[in-house]
Amino acid sequence: MIDIHSHILPSVDDGSKSMEESLGILRQLQGEGFNTILATPHVMEGTDYLQPQEILTATESVRQRAIEAGITVEVFPGAENYIFPEMAKWARDGKLMTLGNTGTYILVELPMMEIPRYTDQVFFELQVEGLTPVLAHPERYQGLFREPQRITEWAKRGILFQIDFRSLSGRYGPQPKRLAERMISSGLIHFVGSDAHRISRSESTNKEALQTLRQMLGEERFEEVTIKNPRSILEGKVIQCSSDYMLNDVDIKKKKRSLWSIIGKIMSK
Ligand SMILES: [Fe+2]
């Protein structure tokens, strides 16, 4: 499997604090079934922003140290770019790292509380630059709990979604878990990421979350979001997606099921 979202570069953001910790995270992700990891440190607009060359250098040193430590996971560069109005211009000027450094897909992060008013415009401008925006963990944004229809609007315009598989374990609370489930049941996820910042204390929880995802998606779709689609990123290839999306409400289905189970129990008495 390929993890397209992690913070494994030492001392560049709020992720790993040392090379030892980076190698520990890699070992853990390998144990969970990942053989390829994209390093996606936070990049924020500002004079001291993390530049593509710094990301390339740090990724290369983690890659080398991983080989020396006998870790067989492959490491590629990337970035989690916090949205700002001038984003497309920065991308055009080569100031932002794309996923896998192939110049095709760009991982975009939104603020947790509100969806900025310029979001649609930035997505459009990135597309004009020939980049496909991949939205990092949409299920975790409070703005999307209030306006989930924005997800289908963006999907119809070609925005792709990376869910944080840990959301399925309830790690971030019930609302991200519920929205992740709705998106999965609606075919609205394209990639997975761990968003790993440190060595997790609950490896079994992560494995269970991946297992839940596998069950919800079915074998073929699971392979698509964990292997096929992210491989297209690394090869700089276009991913063909449906343009007719709807956001299902899994809650309704669950309620219906539980109603039938209650009726079944009454009938069996
Ligand atoms: Fe992240």
Task: Explain the overall architecture.
It is a single chain. Helix 1 links the parallel strand 1 (2-3) and strand 2. The mean pLDDT is 93. The chain is built from ten helices and nine strands. The strands form two sheets. The chain has a six-stranded parallel β-sheet with strand order 3-5-6-7-8-9. It has one domain: TIM Barrel, CATH 3.20.20.140. The protein is globular and about 45 Å long. With 269 residues, it is of the alpha/beta class. Helix content is 45%, strand content 12%. The structure holds fe (ii) ion. Fe (ii) ion binds next to loops.
- CATH homology group: Metal-dependent hydrolases
What is the terminal separation in angstroms? Answer: 47 Å
- Total number of domains: 1
Question: Which structural category do the helix and sheet elements fall into?
Answer: alpha/beta
Major sheet: size, sense and barrel closure? Answer: 6 strands, parallel
Helix content: 40-55%
The CATH level-2 architecture is identified as Alpha-Beta Barrel
Topology of this protein?
Elements: E1 2-3, H1 19-31, E2 36-39, E3 42-43, H2 52-68, E4 74-77, E5 80-82, H3 87-92, E6 105-109, H4 119-128, E7 132-136, H5 142-146, H6 149-156, E8 160-164, H7 174-185, E9 191-193, H8 203-217, H9 219-235, H10 250-268
Helix pairs in contact: 8-9
The protein binds fe (ii) ion.
Fe (ii) ion binds next to loops.
Give me a quick take on this structure.
With about 270 residues, the protein is of the alpha/beta class. Helices cover about 45% and strands about 10% of the residues. The strands form two sheets. The protein has a six-stranded parallel beta sheet with strand order 3-5-6-7-8-9. Strands 1-2-4 form a three-stranded parallel beta sheet.
